[in-house]
């Protein structure tokens, strides 16, 4: 039973990371200097974003991608370890109960789940930072006090931070409670 729950949790991590990785690729494919963009940044504006913000957009997307990839690879490795251990355990024992028991080091498994969760959280933070920089590029820098920028960034920071706090609490509960 717990093996099925663990595999389902790992599948969930992999699926969510895949969606976020797709979002990162879309973000990297988008060119902030493309004049055909629907919201064109006026470079003559005193609130115009400088080249460092554009560099941060790309950097944060790359950091986010690498964090999601790290998390997904750890989750896939744990899932494979569960399946290999389950298969070898059922071959070693002739009774039917053996296929429900998995011979995986519990501490290593918990550490892997924690590492995968941390990778997802770090990737989400970098993706949020990339989006904040996209907003600054398109609507004006936050330092300038642009109301449109704050209207876009504040809900993003509140919702993403709240979701990450809830996710982190659940991951830590599973880490210490398993």
UniProtKB/TrEMBL annotation:
Keywords: Membrane, Transmembrane, Transmembrane helix
Membrane listed as a keyword: yes
TM region positions: 12-30, 58-78, 113-132, 152-176
UniProt entry tagged with the keyword Flavoprotein: no
The protein, known as: CASP-like protein
Lineage: Eukaryota, Viridiplantae, Streptophyta, Embryophyta, Tracheophyta
């Amino acid at each position: 039973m717990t093996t099925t729950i663990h595999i389902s949790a790992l599948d969930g991590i992999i699926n969510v990371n895949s969606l976020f990785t797709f979002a990162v690729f879309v973000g990297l494919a988008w060119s902030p200097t493309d004049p055909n963009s629907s919201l064109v940044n006026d470079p003559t504006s005193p609130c115009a974003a400088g080249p460092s913000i554009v560099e941060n957009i790309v950097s944060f997307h790359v950091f986010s991608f690498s964090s999601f990839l790290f998390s997904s690879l750890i989750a896939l490795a744990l899932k494979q370890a569960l399946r290999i251990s389950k298969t070898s355990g059922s071959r070693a024992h002739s009774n039917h109960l053996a296929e429900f028991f998995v011979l995986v080091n519990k501490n290593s498994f918990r550490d892997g789940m924690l590492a995968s969760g941390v990778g997802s959280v770090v990737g989400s933070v970098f993706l949020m930072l990339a989006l904040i920089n996209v907003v600054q590029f398109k609507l004006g820098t936050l330092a300038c006090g642009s109301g449109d920028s704050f209207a876009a960034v504040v809900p993003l920071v509140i919702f993403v931070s709240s979701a990450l706090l809830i996710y982190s609490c659940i991951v830590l509960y599973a880490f210490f409670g398993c």
